[in-house]
Amino acid sequence: MSVVGYTRVSTQDQNLNSQSDALRAAGAEFIYSDKLTGKNAARPGLVECMKFLRRGDTLLVYSTDRLGRSMTDVVTIVADLGERGVEFKSLTEPFDTTTPGGELFFHICAAFAQMNGRIISDRTRAGLASARARGRLGGRPSVMTAERVAVARRMRAEKATWATIAHTLQVGASSVRRALADDADQHESKEAR
């Protein structure tokens, strides 16, 4: 059973020494490091650290913000470690899954992170519904302008393939299909009357 440390700073000119010294003093035998911003998911040091960790090991960090950019990120990583039988400990916060109190604290934080995610999702849905009620649609504007739709209709009536139409209009074939699907839906509803 090993204690494995992970350190991170956001830029190349920052120094990892204070974190490394604190982790070694707390018992870290191996230390993996990154000099990258936390929002970068592709952190080679963290990837190698995760590969190295085995059941019974403990991942040690100076603080949770070194591990992830948000509490949701940290909770996800720590939950994954827990499933693998790896403990987690932060030196500056009461995150310590090796103790009952620390494990309880982690579960409380995980519940808050999950609740926060749901609140954000609910707010997003409410905002989109409000925008739709005012006639605005979310998402990127369609590349299929009225002129492109007219050209696509003519070409399709002349039996051009989807790929040919898309190439001519310099758009994706799926954009052409979606734009002309509205025509097909309207045609079917007229026939049903």
From TrEMBL:
| Residues of the Resolvase/invertase-type recombinase catalytic domain | 2-135
* Cited Gene3D superfamilies: Resolvase, N-terminal catalytic domain (3.40.50.1390)
Q: Which keywords appear in this protein's UniProt record, sorted alphabetically?
A: DNA integration, DNA recombination, DNA-binding
Q: Name one GO molecular function term.
A: DNA binding
Tagged with keyword Heme: no
GO BP terms: namely: DNA integration
Q: Which InterPro entries match?
A: Resolv_N, Resolvase-like_N_sf, SSR_resolvase
Q: Kindly give the SUPFAM superfamilies that the UniProt entry links to this protein.
A: Resolvase-like (SSF53041)
One family name in Pfam for this protein: Resolvase
Domain of life the protein comes from: Bacteria
Q: Hey, which family's this protein in?
A: Belongs to the site-specific recombinase resolvase family.
Q: What is this protein called?
A: Recombinase family protein
Species lineage: Bacteria, Bacillati, Actinomycetota, Actinomycetes, Micrococcales
